[in-house]
Structures are given as C-alpha cells and as structure tokens.
DNA sequence: GACTCGTGGGG
DNA sequence: TCCCCAAGAGT
C-alpha cells in the first residue's frame, strides 16, 4: 500500500533529507551521548530514553556511567545495585533487562556489543526502534527508527487520518524511505530532535520547521489536531492499606517484590488492596497475615498519599504497626528484612514508598 | 493484538 | 485536580 502523496517522489525525499540535515547542523541538540563512540554508552542512553524525557534521563545517565563505566562493570554488578541506580526512573524491567543483556553479551559475544541487527534484536529490552537507534548512532548503519517523536512528525507530514497505532507498518515504511542512508546517524537524531523541539505534541513551532512547506498537516492547518489519538478508558482507583511494622528493637519490616511484574525486584512496605466494606485497619491486619504470616497490631495513621501509575491510580493509607508474633515468611515476595531507618537507603524503593520513608524521617 | 509496565512535567 | 504524554518492549 503505497502512499500517493507528495512524499512519493525520490526528488522530494532528497529535498526533505537535505532540509532536515541542514537544520540539524545548526539547531540540533547537544546531548551527552551525542558523538559518543562507545556502543555501550549509547545503548544505556537508548534504554533510559524509552518513554522518558531527555531532561529526566541526563542525571541518571551521568551517575550510571560513573557507577558502571563499562559493559563488563555492569555485567558483574549485583541486580540490587543496578536497581538502586535505576530507582525513580520507572519501568524497572528496563534496568533488569539491561543487566541481563550485559551478562548475555559477556557470555555470548565476548563482552563486545554486537553489530549485527539480528543479534542486537535478540537482547532483552531491545526492539526494532532501540536497535535502529543504537546501530545508527554507534556505527551509522542505515536502520530506521519509529519512536514517539518520529510517529508524530510523520503523522503530521502526511496528515495521517488515523491514530499512529493503526498505521505502524505504514509509518515504518515511511521512516525507512525517508532515511538518508549514507547519513543514518545524523538523520535519525535529527528527526527526533525535530519532534522534541519543534514538532511538539502541543503548540508545534511550524514557523521554524525545515519541513513546513512539505508538511500536509501544516498546509491544511490541522497540525494541532494531529496525530489523532485513540479513545482512552478511565483509570481504576484502588485503595491500599500499608504497614510500617516495627519490632521491639525499633527496626522496620520491608519486603522485596517478586522479580517479574509491577515494580519487580524492588523493596516496599507490605500491604494490599482494601476490599469493599473493609476498614483500613482490618485490611492491613489481613494482608500482613496473608503475605508474611505474622500477627500485628495496627496502630496510628502515619500518612495517606495518592500515586498514579500508567493504568491505574492508588491511594496508600499507611499505618504504624506493632509486631506481635510469628517469624515473617516470604509467601508472596522474594525476601523480607528488618532494617533501621539508617540502613533503608541502601535498598531500591518505588517512588510512592520513598514518600513514606520521608514521612518516617520527618517524625 | 490487547495488556502491562513508572514517573515527572505541562496545560 | 485531572488529563496528556514522553527516544517502547515484553507477554
């Protein structure tokens, strides 16, 4: 299914390439991983940048490379250490997969990041966009990308009359067709910069855009309405009871979540969902019995806080609790530990839990 | 192919 | 306060 639009002609493609590359030369962003020859460092940046804005990534990227300066350093590190470095970035499977892939590369590629696209795509956490991003940036390989920026830019360029999600293969073809094959590295970076700095989701700066005259959305005056979006369903809101359980020595009980799934491998304060008609206190007592097999007394309220994930929202109702009887067991977690408030910083926690720790310190 | 998987910032 | 969305990938 070819697009019979203006972008069809080879002549115009060359023109679009030149316009974008010229713009990039003067207006492209200066980012820490640009002009970086080490594929390991480019790889780290690409993973951190998945679904995450540049401004958020930069400090994590700098700290990461100090802590794990080489692929081998990452491969030999502890998973807990890796997750601690990732703490706060979200989508923790990225950190787990980065670690897993580093070990795999040491074992199967002699510790050298592979250059074959097929080999790169086999690595956990790397899909087509990230593979193209790494190999074009590190080796100038002529591989297209299709991230959120490129989807938005291309959807506007051809005035795509449907949500990008419903036209993924068409957009991949267009990204591949537009790619300046001899300058893949610069071209891919340039089109992402265009999306991030001019062709933004809201209030695109079309007057500054090198593709303005070629952009069908702009020419139709519908750039602010594109790309079209899918209808979204309302997010469920769950009420959660959370326990800060203290023993007679003043230590606090924390547990490590299962390796897979939401916040996998991170530590947390135990608790769970409040059932309909259930009080917070009853919920906490029940959950702790079910998950850890111990008896507690639910005490005073510490804090309540709201937190939003991608697919649901929660309100945490946190109470102090007193340990009464029983040795904590790992029934629905990997590990449990009694820690002091001084030791607790060494463990990686999800954001909602770091707010609880801050509240504990403030008391 | 539809779900799952975090967090921060902007409007 | 609420919604949107960002250098996507795994299941």
Outline the secondary-structure elements.
Elements: H1 10-27, H2 39-48, H3 54-67, H4 71-75, H5 79-86, H6 93-108, H7 117-121, H8 128-139, H9 148-157, H10 168-178, H11 184-197, H12 216-220, E1 237-246, E2 252-256, E3 267-268, E4 271-273, H13 280-292, E5 295-308, E6 313-325, E7 335-339, H14 351-362
Parallel strand pairs: 1-6
Antiparallel strand pairs: 1-4, 2-3, 2-7, 5-6
The protein binds a DNA duplex (11 and 11 nucleotides) through helix 2, helix 3, helix 6, helix 8 and helix 9.
Binding site for Mg(2+): 271, 291
Organism: Lusitaniella coriacea LEGE 07157
Domain Nudix hydrolase: 235-363
Structure explained in plain terms:
Its cofactor is [4Fe-4S] cluster; Mg(2+). The chain is an alpha+beta fold. It folds into 2 domains: 9-225, Orthogonal Bundle (Endonuclease III, domain 1); 237-362, Alpha-Beta Complex (Nucleoside Triphosphate Pyrophosphohydrolase). Helix content is 42%, strand content 14%. The chain contains 14 helices and 7 strands. The protein has helices at 10-27, 39-48, 54-67, 71-75, 79-86, 93-108, 117-121, 128-139, 148-157, 168-178, 184-197, 216-220, 280-292, 351-362, and strands at 237-246, 252-256, 267-268, 271-273, 295-308, 313-325, 335-339. The strands form 2 sheets. Strands 4-1-6-5 form a 4-stranded mixed sheet, with helices on both faces. Strands 3-2-7 form a 3-stranded antiparallel sheet, with no helix packed on it. Helix 1 (10-27) crosses helix 11, helix 2 runs antiparallel to helix 8 and helix 9 (148-157) crosses helix 10 (168-178). It is elongated. It starts with 9 loop residues before the first helix and ends with a helix.
